[in-house]
Structure formats: C-alpha cells, structure tokens
Amino acid sequence: MSKTISHIQLTETLELAERQDGFWLYDKTRGMNLSMGAKTPQDALVEALSYYQRRIKDVETKYRELETKVNAFVEQFIEIES
Questions:
Q1: Largest Cα span, the chain
Q2: Which residues pair with 23 in a beta bridge?
Q3: For residue 36, which of 50, 53, 17 has the smallest C-alpha distance?
C-alpha cells in the first residue's frame, strides 16, 4: 500500500488524499473511495462525478421500472368509471 503524502478534508463527508500512487477521493457518506490513483485532484473529482452520474442513471432507471410495475399492480384493483 502506498504512503500518504498529504490529506485534505474537502467537506464534512469528502476527503482527498495525495498518496505515492496518485490522488484518492473518499466519501464518508458511502463509506468508499470514489477515486483511487488519479493523476490530479481534478481527475479524482471527475472520476467521482462520473461514478455518481452512472449511479443516478441506474437508480432512476430502476425507479421507473418499479413505478411501472406498481402502477400496473394497483390498476388491477381500481374500478374504472364510465
């Protein structure tokens, strides 16, 4: 494991560490590294944003699929007024 050179507390939940093998961005909220070994701090932030973009897209897709299934289920029990 590489040695930490410097450590910056960016926010209450985000930490940026410069290590011998690059920059690491840690998210305390998720309990995970969002970037590992990025060449620059900016690259680490871009990697984190890209991760969250992919993640929110997946969550939104799953939400829409679940909403469709729930609506179809509920419609089985709703009387249609003529």
A1: 72
A2: 18, 38
A3: 17
- Compute the distance between CA of residue 61 and CA of residue 69 in angstroms, rounded to an integer: 13
Cα distances from 54 to residues 12, 20, 48, 51, in angstroms, run: 23, 28, 10, 5
The average confidence (pLDDT) of the chain is 95
Residue 34: how many other CB atoms lie within 10 Å: 19
Instruction: Tell me the CA distances in angstroms from 74 to 62, 66, 71, 77, 78, one per residue in order.
Output: 18, 12, 5, 6, 7
Share of the chain above pLDDT 70, in %: 96
Q: In what order do the strands lie in the sheet with 14-19?
A: 4-9, 14-19, 22-27, 32-38
- CA 63 vs. chain centroid, Å, equals 16
